[in-house]
Amino acid sequence: MKNKQKFKKILKDELENTKINAMCGNSDGSYFVFGKYRIIPHDGSYGVIRNNDLIGYFGSTRSALSWCVADKYEYDDLAREIKQLDGRLLELTNDIHVRSAIAKSSKDIDLVERITFKLESKLKYKADIQARLNKCIMISHFYQTRGFTNEIERTVRA
Question: H or E element: which one contains 8?
Fold first, then answer.
């Protein structure tokens, strides 16, 4: 009987320790991450909730998860940059989509040329923002991998 209780206690402690690095997907498309974040799909974007407070909306789960990693390890500047770049990318994508639709439906050749000219610079700016966001996401991935490795080494030594 005592062995069974010891086993349950060890198992419970181990599950609590793993919860810190766990990422669980639900059938509704939401994710429960690191025991304190929720990523919820919302109208084509993803809301991040930390301790029942809405942090903001992201254009992809990749960006949302990267923000959670940066916040978890307290890299505040990286988390802020991910959120800002993702917001700009979302705005630019919507702007490009709307302008493209206007240009396609317009019969005014001058208007189409002006929109096309503006779209070229916006597409270049979007590519730049995307590259910067990808860099931040890779840095966040590095921190998560390094943090996970540190956790494994710490538990192996214990």
Answer: helix 2-19
Domain layout of the chain by residue ranges: 17-157
Half-sphere exposure (CA, 13 Å, Cβ side) for 18?
8
Segment 48-79, tens digit of pLDDT: 999 989 999 999 999 999 999 999 999 999 99
What mean pLDDT is predicted for residues 11-37?
75
Specify whether the backbone of 51 is left (phi greater than 0), alpha (psi in -120 to 50) or beta: left
- Token duo for residue 88: 């700009």
CA separation for the pair 116, 103 (Å, rounded):
8
CA distances from 106 to 41, 47, 78, 112, 123 (A): 34, 35, 42, 7, 20
| Cβ pair 64, 48 in contact under 8 A | yes
pLDDT-based confidence at residue 146 (cuts at 50, 70, 90): confident
* Relative orientation angle of helices 61-72 and 109-157, to the nearest 10 degrees: 40
Please tell me the pTM assigned to this model.
0.79
